[in-house]
Design brief:
The chain has 383 residues and is of the alpha/beta class. The protein folds into two domains: 185 residues, 3-Layer(aba) Sandwich (Rossmann fold), CATH 3.40.50; 156 residues, 3-Layer(aba) Sandwich (Rossmann fold). It has 16 helices and 13 strands. The strands form two sheets. Strands 3-2-1-4-5-6-7 form a seven-stranded parallel beta sheet, sandwiched between helices. A six-stranded parallel beta sheet has the order 10-9-8-11-12-13, with helices on both faces. α10 links the parallel β9 and β10. α1 crosses α16, α3 packs across α4 and α14 packs across α15. The chain is globular. The model has no long low-confidence stretch (mean pLDDT 95).
Length: 383
C-alpha cells in the first residue's frame, strides 16, 4: 500500500516551534511519507528552530525581504507553492495557526485541489482586525480546510458554530509537545547575559512584545509600563528578546535601552526561550504561543492585548488579560510581585492546552481519515 504523502508548510518561528514535534511524529509513522516546505516568511528565526529540532526542508521558497508587506508575503507564497505542487503533489498539506504563510499555503492547496489539515484550528476573537491579520487568516483557512485539529473543546465549538465543513478533532496543543524536547534543569544558555542573571535572589520577568495591532501608542504604553515596573521594584530584572521588526526595535530601545536592569537582547531560539521561562518569575507578553507554554511551566502570564483568542487560559486562571494601558499593566504586575496568594493562584492553575501528546493524536487522525485505521482518535480533555 502506498504511503500517505503529507507536506507540512510553515514559514515563521512560532509555526516551526509548534510544527516541529508533529513533523517528528509524521516521520516516525511507517504509513506516512513526510515532506516539509518552508516559505521563509521569517528567515533567521525559522532556521534556528529547524536546527534545534534537527529538521530539514524538502522545499524552501525563501520569500523574506526587508520591510515585507502582507501582500508580498501572500503573493510570493502562492506563486512558490504553485511551483512546489508542480513538482510534488501531496495527498494532504498541514498548515499551522494564523500567519500569512498559513493562509496562502491553504489557498494554494485549494487551487490545486490538495486536501488541507489545519493545526491549531478554531481560535477566534470575533474581531477581524484584532489580531490583524491573524483573525481573518485563521477564519479563511477554516473555510478551506478538510481536517481541523483544535487544541481545546472551546476551539472545536467555535468551528461548529460557524458550520465548518470537514472533520474536527480535539488534540491539545503541539506547543506543549515541543517543550518535551527543549526544557532541561541543567540547561546552559548560549546568550551570555542569561547565564549571569541571579534567578534565585532577583525576580526576573520574561517580556515579549511584537504584535502588529500593538504598533504605535499601545506599544509605547507597554514599554513605559515595563520601565516604571522595574524602577519601582529594585529586585526585579527584565529580559526582553526584541523582535527584529524595525517598528518594534525603534519603540523598545529608546524607552528601555538605558536601564541597567532591563536587558534588551536579540531574539533567542526556542530552547533559550523555554528555559528562560522555566526560570523566570512570570511572563509579560502579547504573544499567543507563550500563553500556552508558560502555564505548562507553572508561570503566570499577563497578556498585554485588548483581547485574546485563547480564553481557556483566562478561564483556567493561568493567564490574565491586562490590556495595553500603562496603569493597568503596572497594577496587575505589581499584584503578582507583592501578593503571594495572587501569584500562587495563577502559578498552580491547571494548563488547559495539552498533555504533550497532541502530535500523536494528529497523526492518528490523518491515518483514520485516509482509512488506514478503523479507530477515530479520542479527544484531548483537560483535567
Amino acid at each position: 500500500m502506498e504511503k500517505i504523502k503529507v507536506m507540512s508548510v510553515f514559514g515563521t518561528r512560532p509555526e516551526a516551534i509548534k510544527m516541529a514535534p508533529l513533523v517528528k511524529a509524521l516521520e516516525a509513522c511507517d504509513a506516512i511519507e513526510s515532506r516539509v516546505c518552508l516559505t521563509g516568511q521569517h528567515r533567521e528565526m525559522l532556521d534556528s528552530v529547524m536546527q534545534i529540532f534537527h529538521l530539514h526542508g524538502n522545499f524552501d521558497l525563501d520569500i523574506m525581504e526587508q520591510r515585507q508587506t502582507l501582500s508580498t508575503i501572500t503573493c510570493k507564497t502562492l506563486l512558490g507553492m504553485e511551483r512546489v505542487f508542480e513538482q510534488d503533489k501531496p495527498d494532504l498539506i498541514l498548515v499551522h495557526g494564523d500567519t500569512s504563510t498559513t493562509f496562502a499555503g491553504a489557498l494554494a492547496a485549494f487551487y490545486h485541489q490538495v486536501k488541507v489539515g489545519h493545526v491549531e484550528a478554531g481560535l477566534r476573537t470575533w474581531d477581524k482586525y484584532s489580531p490583524f491579520p491573524e483573525e481573518m487568516n485563521r477564519t479563511l483557512v477554516g473555510d478551506i480546510a478538510d481536517l481541523h485539529f483544535s487544541p481545546t473543546k472551546a476551539n472545536a465549538e467555535n468551528l461548529r458554530r460557524e458550520s465548518i465543513m470537514g472533520d474536527i478533532f480535539i488534540t491539545g496543543n503541539t506547543a506543549i509537545d515541543a517543550m518535551r524536547y527543549t526544557v532541561r534543569p541543567d540547561y546552559k544558555f548560549s546568550t551570555a547575559i542569561l547565564n549571569e542573571l541571579d534567578f534565585t535572589h532577583h525576580r526576573v520577568l520574561a517580556v515579549t512584545c511584537h504584535r502588529r495591532e500593538n504598533y504605535g501608542a499601545p506599544m509605547q504604553n507597554i514599554m513605559h509600563a515595563i520601565l516604571r515596573l522595574v524602577e519601582e521594584n529594585p529586585d526585579v530584572e527584565v529580559v526582553y528578546p526584541v523582535h527584529l521588526s524595525p517598528v518594534v526595535r525603534e519603540c523598545a530601545f529608546p524607552i528601555l535601552g538605558s536601564h541597567p536592569r532591563i536587558h534588551l537582547i536579540d531574539p533567542i531560539d526556542v530552547e533559550e526561550m523555554h528555559n528562560l521561562m522555566a526560570r523566570c518569575f512570570f511572563v509579560l507578553t502579547d504573544s499567543g504561543g507563550l500563553q500556552e507554554e508558560a502555564p505548562a511551566l507553572g508561570k503566570p502570564v499577563l497578556v498585554m492585548r485588548r483581547e485574546t483568542e485563547r480564553p481557556e487560559a483566562i478561564a483556567a486562571g493561568t493567564a490574565k488579560l491586562v490590556g495595553v494601558e500603562q496603569e493597568t499593566i503596572l497594577r496587575e504586575a505589581n499584584e503578582l510581585l507583592h501578593s503571594e496568594a495572587a501569584y500562587a493562584k495563577m502559578a498552580k492553575a491547571v494548563n488547559p492546552y495539552g498533555d504533550g501528546h497532541a502530535s500523536e493524536r494528529i497523526v492518528q487522525a490523518i491515518l483514520w481519515h485516509f482509512g488506514r485505521t478503523a479507530d477515530r482518535p479520542g479527544d484531548f480533555c483537560a483535567q
